Amino acid sequence: MTVTTANHHMIAYGSGQVREDALEAITAGQMERVDLPGAPFAVIEVTRTEPVRLHSIAHPFTLPPSAADMRHADAQLSFLETHLAKLCGGWWKPGQRFIADYFSALRRKVSEHRDTLADRADAMAGLIEEEHWAFSAPMPFPRALVRPAGDGPLRAEDFTAADFAFYTRDGLVAAWIDTGRSIMPSAKRARARLLDAGVICRDIRLPPAGKAPEKLLEELGADFVHFATSEPLPRTPFRGRPIGNPVI
Amino acid sequence: MHKEEKKNINLISQNLLLGNGNLGEGVSIQLAKDGRRILWLAHESAPKNFTGVDVSDPRNPKVIVQTDLPHNKVRSNSLDVVGDMMAVAYQTQTWGDEPAGIEIFDISKPESPRSIGYYDCSSPWSRGAHQVWFVEDGWLTAAAPTKDFKPKESWDDQPFLMLDISNPSKPVESCFWWYPGTRDSDDEPAPPRHPRFSQGWRCHNTNVYPERPDRAYIGYIDGGAMILDISDKSAPKLVSHWNPHPPANGFTHTVLPLFDRDLIIASDECVYDLGEDWPKRVWVLDAQVENNLVPISTLPMPPVEEYAPRGGRFGAHNVHENRPGPSFRSEEIIIGTYFNAGVRVHDISNPFEPKEIAYYVPEAPNGSPTGSAQINDAYVDENGVLYAVDRWSGGLYILEMEI
Known about the structure:
The structure holds 2 protein chains of 2 kinds.
Chain A: E1 8-12, H1 20-27, E2 41-45, H2 73-87, H3 93-112, H4 114-122, E3 141-147, E4 160-168, E5 171-177, H5 185-196, E6 200-204, H6 214-220, H7 222-225, H8 227-230
Parallel strand pairs in A: 5-6
Antiparallel strand pairs in A: 1-2, 1-3, 3-4, 4-5
Helix pairs in contact in A: 2-3, 3-6
Chain B: E1 5-7, E2 9-15, E3 23-31, E4 37-43, E5 48-54, E6 62-68, E7 74-75, E8 79-82, E9 85-92, E10 101-106, E11 114-120, E12 131-136, E13 139-143, E14 160-164, E15 172-177, E16 206-207, E17 215-219, E18 225-229, E19 237-242, E20 252-258, E21 263-268, E22 282-286, E23 294-298, H1 304-307, E24 333-337, E25 343-347, E26 355-361, E27 375-380, E28 385-390, E29 396-401
Antiparallel strand pairs in B: 1-26, 2-29, 3-4, 4-5, 5-6, 7-9, 8-9, 9-10, 10-11, 12-13, 13-14, 14-15, 16-17, 17-18, 18-19, 20-21, 21-22, 22-23, 24-25, 25-26, 27-28, 28-29
């Protein structure tokens, strides 16, 4: 499928910048040059009706996991958590805390439904574990630079910064952690543009440190609360795959 | 004379403050009960004490009150406002003079500030208070001695002082700390003097934030940046000390913690004209390990070859301090004052590579003895309106950032 600005949302994330060469590659249809380690990039079709989940994307790891260490779902989950925390950058504690709380909440949610999920996993003769369902949760794109689908050229200056982006059944979500910081006028104008483009813009209140991270999922919405039961079978992003393609 | 220079900052208005445009390091906003926004400004030197300006319409600021000092050998220099109360620091030119202390005012009627309390720290060894930090009801901190503090070296005369002002008519010392070796009775030797620009081991800014009420972040002039553990007010402890002087040229002014990023911004004040004490920098410190601060970059400044000859001071001074109240708060945008290089704004999203994103340098104000602007301090309100002040005659510049 040809990627077009009109039909695809785009999210550069984890590096604080939009790579010009990624935009050139998209324009040239060379999608294998878009989603790269250190500067990941997701392209989401506007017609998508399912959330973009943790297992939906290729995750171009800078430090690839060793297969031997990735045999079990809990290790895979921890690896992915560390990877996403690194994409928050080294100087952003609220972002890192969001990732820690988010994964803590996912683990608790899986534990909450362990019996039901174990029954489903039994049918797969040990190929899957209950923790694999955690990968069904929506993918948080840290340090997101978002370009919602819309006509026009593909330019770096048209991407808007958000602390995190998600794609849920309700559509593209841009989120900011509420830390009491001031919002510059340019950022206010950028948020207004996102709203005009149909992006859901919201603030995230982190629960008090060390307390009730599951509240975070409730605050984020239904796709976050029901991820463990909304997919009949789980998948892992650590499966073997050919060449990466960021189109989701 | 150089013309106004600007990038991504526009001048909304300027006010010369009735011909008393010499402002110090105290800029604070009061949200008055009647809905007005009153900007309170400390003067750098006599004859004026402080000025209140109605900035409800930033395009048309109006002086509503201006007060006088008792004589010309004292200056106020620093003030801070919480609610309807204002604290003002008094520093004398010479040791032993008066008034040397901190005065508390009721400003509920902004046109008529009423003195309601005074902390006297005058003594034969004291010049009084250089700075106050007053951001919450009930307490303040200051660069000031107690009456009985006698330093070994005369310039080490302003330690860290915290006052309980829950009863503002009777301020009470609640925490007091000095660097070991600076008090006359200390067994330790006095710390070494700076070989070229000795200005003393004493406090400049004494910031304590509600996010970390157990910590004081202090600029200790030639002693560098220090963090005090003040959880036990009766026994404050030095938990971190970073001092680049020498080789750096002294005068650490502000230590600004960025709590969400484990970073600290530390500024060194330029105190000599024509670039003599260049470079005076704003440092970015890695504070992930509190007791081992590590410099990772400095904020870029324009070329010394171009700016030093313009006259007056050129180099860093203060930064906007993210204080509570009607104040801009950011951990990525650092707004600082650089004397003849005006007010400058840096983006430290990547703290290893800070970028200058905006600046405003007014042309030299009439009556300035340096022949250049000398932007001394800046405060940014919660709406992003930037108030910058000139040290000699330019008064108040109200600016709008386009960032």
